[in-house]
């Protein structure tokens, strides 16, 4: 029987320890995610950790360290696609990035366990849980801090509400005016306005501006013929 010839007690015990460690560490990571009601909770993190450990352990048993590294690299890629499934875009906001990153880290824990790096897997688990818990109040404190528009990572938009008949001409005026003031324009979108108006939204390349300069630019644009309103706004990027 093939099973009898392939069965080795010591090797099987090694696999049991690796998968049990992946299960334990995945449970610890997933419990924190489940408590916070995240999309990928307890079972998902456990399955990612155990699955990663099983693939790497199998490759290590059959082929050795080189094959284990090759399989681990493919695990990283595969979990990347899995993590993309939990990322959702809601308007200007993106949710699920932290959950996706946690799944990626759970795979790293499983890969370490699968290669018998149990201590390393435990250390990574500790760091993941600390990152998702201890750093939460730090992140909140930073979010509550006053926004320094010159130093923060923000995107800027200049919005020009114009008559639809003059939209094409004023689009060029908008770009030329901004670039004359050294504000490069990444793209200009058109949004429907009210009463036959069109809203031109110029997205700037730069992440650092002088608010007073944008105020002066929008004031000048607002005085252009066929322009109903001009303003600008900043959006904090994660």
From TrEMBL:
Keywords: Cell inner membrane, Cell membrane, Membrane, Methyltransferase, Transferase, Transmembrane, Transmembrane helix. This is Protein MgtC. Coiled coil: none annotated. The chain crosses the membrane at residues 12-30, 42-62, 68-88. Virulence factor required for growth in low Mg(2+) medium and for intramacrophage survival. May be involved in regulating membrane potential by activating Na(+)/K(+)-ATPase. It is a multi-pass membrane protein. It holds the Pfam family MgtC. The keyword Electron transport does not apply. Its main location: membrane. It is found in: Cell inner membrane; Cell membrane. GO terms for biological process: methylation. Residues 156-232 form the MgtC-like C-terminal domain. PANTHER family: PROTEIN MGTC (PTHR33778). GO terms for molecular function: methyltransferase activity. It comes from Xanthobacter flavus.
